[in-house]
Design goal:
three-stranded antiparallel beta sheet; mainly alpha; 14 helices; single chain
């Protein structure tokens, strides 16, 4: 009879026999005069077997194979836009690192070197470096579910902290005014979309996916229900890329945004030329406008207005910054932006919040001068 939970038996000849499963499904047998001796031999054998198994897996699957297999499997359960983001992260950063001979296999050293390389990449913003490492950690976590020997590697991945003083790119009030005047004088109605973004904070993909049926002009509410992006064509036929329309970035990105009265009035004027509610606001047709084409239009507008070039996303940052300057509370702003939680808004706009705190404390200083100093002067005069 074997000891409970162990492959150790006492034979009829009085000796103890144990067995350990080797890589490939075969057993190795051990013999000794006592139970303890057999168990010690088996324990030592298991250590050797684990090392051999790990070496065999590393020989069979190098790190690039593991990451590429992960992306292929993830592609079946992720929406295309997310998969596209993962693809460019792997192709641009992860795979080039693990193609190097010293990083060929997943190990604590190769993972540590990758994390350090991303930390030192000052060409990319802190937020983008965090994004790369977040995707990398997600991949490692999924890989370790299939290969448990890699479980400890996820602990090595940490994220660079966003400094409170780190500035984000926004348009100044003067630049925003110049750009809006340029939009007003433009003969291209599509430039009106930039004005919508300045006063609602929606993303470029959400703007391109906006239909007239999403805007309730009577209630003054705009619903964000979809996003449009250009992705790689998964089919072998056709062009290299296609326009993809799907749900917004996250669950909270599906949201309703109240519209300011002046924007509603302008929308009513623009809608008059629309065919139906199924038409997209930018294209005026039943097919959406290409976000890449709209970025080119936007850059041309900046050049015409003689304003320093910034990414389109700077308009969203400008909306958030103006909101904080006007005293909009952080919870409301977070919901308008469609962030999944308030901490995301706090982290991104920490610098703007510091400025608001300075203004708040300045009011205390003004209160002290007006009320406290005057009161002290009156008391001293009376004495």
């Amino acid at each position: 009879m074997a000891r409970k939970g162990e492959n150790i038996y006492k034979r009829k000849d009085g000796r103890w026999e144990g067995r350990v499963l080797q890589f490939g499904g075969k057993f190795r047998y051990f013999y000794a005069k006592t139970y303890r001796e057999v168990r010690a031999k088996m324990r030592e054998s298991r250590k050797t077997t684990d090392t051999q198994n790990m070496q065999h897996i590393n020989r069979q699957l190098c790190a690039t194979d593991l990451f590429q297999n992960w992306l292929e499997e993830a592609g079946h359960r992720l929406k295309p836009s997310t998969c596209e983001s993962y693809y460019y992260c792997l192709e641009g950063y992860v795979l080039p690192h693990f193609r190097l001979s010293e990083n060929e296999h997943l190990s604590k050293d190769s993972v540590f070197r990758f994390v350090q390389a991303i930390y030192r990449n000052e060409v990319r913003s802190t937020s983008y470096r965090r994004k790369i490492l977040s995707i990398f950690k997600t991949a490692l976590r999924d890989i370790s579910k299939k290969y448990p020997e890699y479980n400890s590697l996820t602990e090595i991945v940490s994220f660079p902290k966003v400094e409170i003083g780190e500035e984000i790119s926004v348009f100044s009030i003067r630049e925003q005014k110049i750009l809006q005047n340029t939009i007003q004088s433009s003969s291209d109605n599509k430039t009106f979309g930039i004005l919508i973004c300045f006063y609602t904070g929606i993303r470029l993909g959400e703007l391109c996916g906006l239909k007239w049926g999403d805007i309730d002009l009577d209630a003054g509410i705009m619903s964000i229900l979809r996003t449009v992006t250009r992705i790689r064509n998964p089919e072998t036929s056709g062009g290299k890329t296609i326009l993809w329309e799907g749900p917004p970035k996250s669950r909270t990105s599906t949201r309703k945004i109240p519209l300011p009265d002046f924007l509603l009035k302008k929308m009513k004027d623009y809608q008059a030329a629309s065919i139906s509610e199924d038409c997209y606001v930018l294209s005026g047709k039943t097919v959406p406008f290409d976000p890449r084409a709209y970025q080119r239009l936007y850059k041309g507008l900046l050049k015409k207005a003689e304003i320093k070039e910034r990414k389109f996303h700077a308009i969203r940052h400008t909306f958030a910054t103006r909101a904080l300057e006007l005293g909009v509370d952080i919870k409301t702003l977070s919901e308008l932006l469609g962030h999944s939680n308030v901490s995301i808004t706090l982290n991104i706009y920490a610098h703007s919040l510091i400025e608001q705190k300075k203004k708040a404390i300045k009011k205390f200083n003004e209160m002290y001068i007006v009320q406290m100093e005057n009161s002290l002067s009156a008391v001293n005069s009376a004495v």
